[in-house]
Write a structure and sequence with these properties.
Distance between the termini: 36 Å
Strand order of the largest sheet: 1-4
Helix content: 55-70%
Keywords: Nucleotidyltransferase, RNA-directed DNA polymerase, Transferase
Radius of gyration: 23 Å
Largest sheet: 2 strands, antiparallel
Number of helices: 15
InterPro entries: RT_dom
Number of strands: 6
Structural class: mainly alpha
Protein name: RNA-directed DNA polymerase
GO molecular function, one term: RNA-directed DNA polymerase activity
Organism: Candidatus Aphodosoma intestinipullorum
Order of helices and strands: EHEEHEHEHHEHHHHHHHHHH
């Protein structure tokens, strides 16, 4: 479980979690048997379809309290799982890597990559821990956002083509792998924009079908970051984003429309931002703020006498006005929460 736009300090976190999640429990416990440890859920069901239904129902209930599933920690595992040796040692002992820690560069063949990934998948299923896949992907990647390893791993052309195809399939089966795919796989030497486009389009479709808006958001992010025109969603991206009521998805839909010069789609997002400014700013502040900043519109200004402010009896400023006033100061200072390089790519 993750918060979405709700900042909670360490002392209040557990208490607030219990207050909110107890309400969620009252709904879910009527249909499912599960264990909850603060914000971590473990549910046992009969079939994979039942597991999908639980995740859908859980996500639906969480959204009522502005919470989302942590896609990185969400997984469906078939039981029973077998115990075995430590999986990290087993991966590091794989023949293609074993005894080569001091080599500055390792080139792997298709046969080696296939055997290594098969080992990782088997271990992940047996250990009931898909962190195995993340670890294995980082070992195969020449670059990682959070990997300080100096050794460079290269895949020959045949190995890379097979590996990308396999990771494409795994990403659609397990969308929570999107983080490691984004941080490692897409940055590998030899990956082409067309490879990313195929993954992104299919990921968007899966995200829409399963209501995994983070997956849709990543698909739009890739299309802007790597400069391709997405096919999935087509002219309906803005509409789907508005219906999702997901802050990041709506922001990326706006940025995509801005890049495309699609005034109709952009107008939909601007109208939604204006609606949410007054209706639910604290939940959607990032989307609303960035839209107003890009559009060059004022978030808030102090009301003058004509709007009801009296010289003798000043009108009380609401809490929302105070918050909007603070964000207006940020807007006037030119502050953005989008990195400069990406922001520039959003311009047509």
């Amino acid at each position: 479980m993750e918060t979405n736009g709700l900042l909670i300090g360490p002392h209040a976190s557990n208490l607030l979690s219990e207050i909110v999640l107890t309400a969620v429990d009252s709904k879910l416990s009527k249909k499912y048997k599960y264990i909850r440890n603060i914000g971590d859920y473990t549910c046992y069901v009969q079939t994979s379809d039942d597991a999908e239904k639980f995740l859908t129902d859980l996500a639906k209930e969480l959204r009522k309290y502005d919470l989302t599933l942590n896609i990185k920690k969400t997984r469906i595992v078939e039981l029973p799982t077998a115990a075995g040796e430590d999986w990290i040692n087993q991966l590091n002992s794989f023949p293609a890597f074993c005894g080569r820690a001091k080599e500055k560069e390792i080139e792997l063949t298709r046969k080696e990559v296939k055997a290594f990934l098969d080992l990782a998948l088997n271990l992940a299923q047996r250990k009931d821990d898909f962190a195995v896949i993340t670890y294995a992907v980082k070992m195969l990647s020449s670059k990682s956002d959070d990997d300080d390893e100096k050794r460079k791993v290269k895949l020959d052309t045949s190995a890379l083509r097979w590996y990308l195809s396999r990771m494409h399939h795994l990403l659609l089966a397990y969308p929570y792998l999107v983080h490691v795919v984004d941080g490692c796989v897409l940055k590998m030497e030899g990956v082409e924009v067309e490879d990313i486009k195929k993954m992104g389009d299919d990921l968007y479709r899966v995200g829409k079908e399963k209501r995994l808006w983070e997956a849709c958001s990543y698909a739009l992010y890739w299309s802007i970051e790597y400069g391709y025109e997405p096919e999935a969603g087509g002219d309906n991206i803005a509409e789907e984003a508005v219906r999702s009521e997901d802050c990041i998805f709506m922001l990326l839909a706006y940025l995509r429309a801005r890049k495309d010069g699609d005034d109709a789609a952009k107008d939909k997002m601007v109208i939604k931002a204006k609606e949410l400014r007054d209706k639910d700013f604290e939940r959607y502040w990032l989307f609303v703020y960035e839209v107003y900043r890009f559009e060059g519109e004022v978030l808030w200004h102090e009301r003058d006498n004509a709007n009801g402010k009296s010289k003798d009896k000043p009108k009380k400023i609401s809490r929302l006005d105070k918050i909007l006033g603070q964000f207006e100061c940020l807007r006037e200072a030119g502050i953005s929460f989008i990195v400069d390089d990406f922001s520039e790519k959003c311009n047509r």
